[in-house]
Amino acid sequence: MAKQDRAIRTRQTILTAAARVFEEHGYQAATISEILSTAGVTKGALYFHFNSKEELAFGVLEAQHVQYLIPERPCKLQELVDTAMLLAYRLQSDPMVRASVRLAMDQTATGLDRTGPFLRWRELTNDLLKQAYDRGELLPHVVLSKTSDVFVGAFTGVQSMSQVLSGYQDLTGRVSELMRHLLPSLAQPSVIASLRLSASRGAEVFEEAQSVMAEQKEPVAVD
Q1: Is the distance from CB of 97 to CB of 90 less than 8 angstroms?
Q2: Claim to verify: residue 76 and residue 180 sit in the same structural domain
Q3: CB 142 within 8 A of CB 132
Q4: For residues 212 and 76, what is the distance between their CA atoms, to the nearest angstrom?
Q5: What are phi and psi of 77, to 5 degrees?
């Protein structure tokens, strides 16, 4: 078990170093030698876990989709808001997530398949909108697939603008305003009135998700 734990820690150390290098230099300019130097591991250790720079990039790209267990909400639109606000908060507080988004947005990353994060966010958004639609939370005219694309695209633009203007410092406020402008075209007025859309919502959801995950890891007593 100790050997397995050590391998897991080494892999995470390498990914963290790769994230730092990718965020600072972009995919094309990043080198394996700089990642090795930043991680403080041997070339053999790196290639034991990752076969190439591309594989490292895929590992970092996955970071933004680490599943935080948001408890199921009575209102599915609140779940969608909470998912977006949680990502905004993690962009502010988690270097790995920032590097993941930098890679996904890096138009110079020739040969790197960057579609995964966008496709997963669209799928998750579409699923939550479908549940919201089935519960009568959305207006009748809403077309789920088109709305999912608009939602993901709008969030992507807002986070990109925030990164340039403030280094993500104002992102949760910007996403809160995005929700206030976007949701009236999608949701029943009675549903909008019940939603929690404040800029502090991401931090609240993060703490809640951390508590849920900690509870699930607690050992179960056996009589």
Answers
A1: yes
A2: yes
A3: no
A4: 19
A5: -65, -35
Q: What is the pLDDT of residues 118-161, one digit of tens each?
A: 999 999 999 999 999 999 999 999 999 999 999 999 999 999 99
CATH number at residue 174: 1.10.357.10
Residue whose structure tokens are 């270097």: 95
Pair 53, 88 in one domain:
no
Determine the structural domain holding residue 36 and report its residue range: 2-63
Phi, psi dihedrals of residue 138, rounded to the nearest 5°:
-105, 160
Choose among 98, 86, 95: nearest CA to 200. Answer: 86
pTM, two decimal places: 0.85
CA distance 86 to 94: 11
Q: What is the pLDDT of residues 109-126, one digit of tens each?
A: 888 888 888 999 999 999
Residue 223 included in any domain: no
**What pLDDT is stored for residue 218 in this prediction?**
56
CA–CA separation, 207 vs 209, rounded Å?
5
Please indicate, yes or no, whether residues 120 and 47 belong to a single structural domain of this protein: no
Q: Using CA atoms, how far apart are residues 77 and 106, in angstroms rounded to an integer?
A: 30
